[in-house]
Amino acid sequence: MENYKTLTIDEIQQGLRSGSFSARELAHEALRVSKAENEQYNSFIHFCPERAMEAAELVDAELAAGKEPGPLGGVPVAVKDVIMTEGLRTTCGSRILENYVAHYDATAVERLEKAGAVIFGKTNCDEFAMGSSNENSAFGCVRNPAVPERVPGGSSGGSAAAVAGGFAPVSLGTDTGGSIRQPASFCGVVGVKPTYGRVSRYGLTAFASSLDNIGPFARTVKDAATVLGVIAGYDANDSTCAKVDTSDYQAALDGDVNGLKIGVPKEYYAEGLDAEVRERIEYGLKILESLGCAIVEISLPHTEYAVATYYLICTAEASANLARYDGVRYTRRSNETGTLEQMYAKTRAEGFGAEVTRRIILGTYVLSAGYYDAYYRKAQKARSLIAADFKKAFQTVDAIVTPVSPFPAFRLGEKVSDPLEMYLSDIYTLTSSLAGNTGISVPCGETSEGLPIGMQILADHFNEVTMLKLADAFERDIGFKVQ
Amino acid sequence: MKITKKEVRYIARLANLELSEEAITQYSKDLEEILTYVDKLNELDTSDVEPMAQVIYDGTAISTMKEDAPALSFDQEKALRESPLSGAGHFKVPKVIER
Questions:
Q1: Which of A381, A386, A421, A426 is the best mutation test for B, with the most CBs of B within 10 A?
Q2: What is the ipTM of this complex?
Q3: CATH number for the domain formed by residue range(s) B5-42
Q4: Cβ-based contacts of B60 with chain A (< 8 Å)
Q5: DSSP for B26-65, written as a single string
Q6: CB B57 to CB A197 under 8 A?
Q7: Is the pTM of this model over 0.95?
Q8: How far apart are the CA of B65 and the nearest CA of chain A, in angstroms?
Q9: Fewest beta carbons within 10 Å, which of A164, A274, A475, B50?
Q10: Residue A271 touches partner B, C-beta closer than 8 Å
Q11: Superfamily designation of domain A4-231
């Protein structure tokens, strides 16, 4: 198959129906290409050929019988390895879960396969989704297919790279403070963080429960919208999953954005923003203006407090969520036995990497007696103020447009020595995560060195329709498609 | 905000993490840097602000809860499958009570 690396969902549906290829052949090709390229890019931790072939055969049989296999019928999908797949390893990029085999399927996985998707591999990521460069994976870092000596971003670096490199037409990632949007920007693909509560997290390994989301990567906005439509919606197994109607996201992509009001937060275009990134985003805003959108300056005054707020809340939640990996239930236990406490402490020391340990320590500290009010509760209050900024802004604008990251993909190893600097680079994405809003990174061109730049479009709670409509109209106009 | 190695040792014990001396030195430095940065939040007057624990959508407090109806869950065998050490239907851990 010559064109596997550029296939869209529509092209796959047409190809299957016209007999150009079968779902089985497509699954074979997905596995062949991905395995061959994995030596260089390391975007997958493991593959699941048996499960893929079984799903593909089902699609072929349904098509042969004249049945409709679903909106993702035969589409090869890569899934971030923090999302449960029954009977398959789900490592979370961590030594501590290296051999853990999931007990059940995540709701998102179940819905994908019900819609005909062919899950063929689990993608690499920062350990427990903690990181902005994919350098925190216990299974080695991922390389950016657009520029192999640079990072793909994180934490869903493997899922972004899989789509950018043509190994999978679409993939699933997770986004707590930008872990879908930032790697999408670095790799030059589309990445969607849905509204908090839009997609069930049942079967997603918890990192920071008040912030975690599952969402799609794709090469086009339309494909991302299709995947979102499949995984969105209420699930009784996740009490944070909202009972809010989902929409036909594809139908919303009508190109009509005339009259929409776009907010440009002045705080996001301040110091620290790379000049070339700024130039491209300003160019992107001009495109939206030419499509009939009104661009207005807005203020999100508490933006400067977002990084501090986010890293207090996410580490506190992480320290509680990761307490369960204690050598009792989840495969790994230290060989050095002793008392129960020693067994816990040794197992965790051997199993967790440096960044996860750092966050557990920070989170434990801010929750500990005497510091809870000063740090954790203070951060929760600051979070209210940040969320109120967005609520107010969305009373006057339909969407907000910003950069995704202050700079394009950096070199491997360039920023590992300074955790705070790495945290600060998440400013444009984690602020809206605190408020729970939906966001998308859509390719907006490249730097003079050829590094992809993503533009972020944010919308109000459960208003994915407006966000996708804008992103789609923008994508068509800029004419930038990943090849 | 000064963070001593003693404090890091105490926190590591609370978090059930065994740390090397080298790691304790590194994490006390990291923690100090990060906590100094987050002190920025003290510029904010939050005396009249409610803490936000969760993103709330416009539903009632119980609208996402499911029916309290019994349903099948994992059986014992499945629940114990990924345990490093189990026996007689239980997870096994080092002895915690001395005779």
A1: A381
A2: 0.94
A3: 1.10.20
A4: none
A5: HHHHHHHHHHHHHGGGGGS--TT-----SPPPSS-TTTTP
A6: yes
A7: yes
A8: 6
A9: B50
A10: no
A11: Amidase signature (AS) domain (3.90.1300.10)
